[in-house]
Amino acid sequence: xxxxxxxxxxxxxxxxxxxxxxxxxxxxxxxxxxxxxxxxxxxxxxxxxxxxxxxxxxxxxxxxxxxxxxxxxxxxxxxxxxxxxxxxxxxxxxxxxxxxxxxxxxxxxxxxxxxxxxxxxxxxxxxxxxxxxxxxxxxxxxxxxxxxxxxxxxxxxxxxxxxxxxxxxxxxxxxxxxxxxxxxxxxxxxxxxxxxxxxxxxxxxxxxxxxxxxxxxxxxxxxxxxx
Length: 227
Fold this sequence. Notes:
This protein is mostly helical. It is 52% helix and 7% strand. It is built from eleven helices and three strands. The protein has helices at 3-9, 33-45, 69-79, 91-94, 97-101, 116-125, 132-145, 156-179, 184-196, 204-213, 220-226; strands spanning 17-21, 56-61, 82-87. It has a three-stranded parallel beta sheet, with helices on both faces. Strand 1, helix 2 (33-45) and strand 2 (56-61) form a beta-alpha-beta unit. The longest helix is centred in the last third of the chain and has 24 residues, at 156-179.
């Protein structure tokens, strides 16, 4: 259940909930915090909500796409009678940076992939009978593809594409840009090596030797920095 649905279940009036996903073309015009301020205050002034009495709920998805978004969040917190929920896939929201931007003014809720138990509960809630044979099949799927909730709506071939998209989004878009990585081939080969040898001990000299055989020269010190 998402936050929107949970609020409705708690009895919150739907007109008091404002949900914006910044990946939607409908909100392409919101580029920075000034645009976001204008949009929110405009829709509130045009609504029938008395914000001094009625609490509103602001839900912002992928808010890192808005430049200086934290300034808007701080102003909404001060000027509005509101509960504010923000989500994002950028490392800016997944690290301690948020503590600097909104220190003492937020509660972080980490979201993890499903455990195998939660995957079984998902299928049971959809009315599926979980036989022992079905459980074995689902466990093999879980071992192969992991527990990202979005995987559950795809078949095996599409699951691989989904995982590649997540990998590209996190590694190529987020990690590379955030850390100003120069040697992209080195990072890709290093990640591939670590994934393929998961659970096994390794050292930076052994990885350096492996990469040299792959045609990539790197010192043990560089390996440690990238790790």
